[in-house]
Amino acid sequence: MKNFLNKFWDWYERHYLFNLSIATLLFFVQLFHLYWLFSDIILSKFTGHSHFLFPSIWGTVSAFLDYSEIPAIITTTVLYLHLLRKEFGYKILWLLLALNIQWIHILWITDEVVIERFNESFSLFHWANWLAWIAILIDYLELPVIYDTVKRLIAEIKNKIKSPKS
């Protein structure tokens, strides 16, 4: 098993830019879902109407895009495990936690639960309303991960441009 893992991590390192690109792209798509969540769900709760600028079918598309979160979490978890193997850092550990807490949102408090709770009358002290807000906060923990992967990808591309292999 150890030999297999060593081969995998060697392969991962050789194809780091490719792997980083896939993880970044998969998570970058989540920005549209977060935009939908904010403009159509959260703002609707406070203002009484949607501020989503796209036709309503894009809300459904956003829900499907949200399922790309599963491969995004897996590929980005592998990315952060790779980085931790190279050098331990609390920032990477925090990003790994922020990333994998998404499983709670995916498996337990889905967007459907949030929408259902927000479509009912709002009571500040009702526990289910708090669960909906917790789910939203968990969803937005993706932002530091998206920022970090985009920043790493840009730095890696710049590095490749400066020192191309012969």
Molecular structure report:
This protein has 166 residues and is mostly helical. It starts with a helix and ends with a helix. Helix 2 packs across helix 5 and helix 3 (30-47) packs across helix 4 (57-66). The model has no long low-confidence stretch (mean pLDDT 83). The protein contains 10 helices and no strands. The protein has helices at 2-14, 16-28, 30-47, 57-66, 69-86, 90-100, 102-107, 111-119, 127-140, 142-162. The longest helix has 21 residues, at 142-162.
pLDDT < 50 runs, ≥5 residues:
none
Structural class: mainly alpha
Quickly count the helices. 10
Which strand-content bin applies to the residues?
A: under 5%
- Broad shape: elongated
Give the number of DSSP strands.
0
Rg from Cα:
19 Å
Query: What's the N-to-C terminus distance?
Result: 34 Å
| Largest pleated sheet | none
Measured as a percent range, the helix fraction is over 70%
Mean pLDDT: 83
Write the H/E string, N to C: HHHHHHHHHH
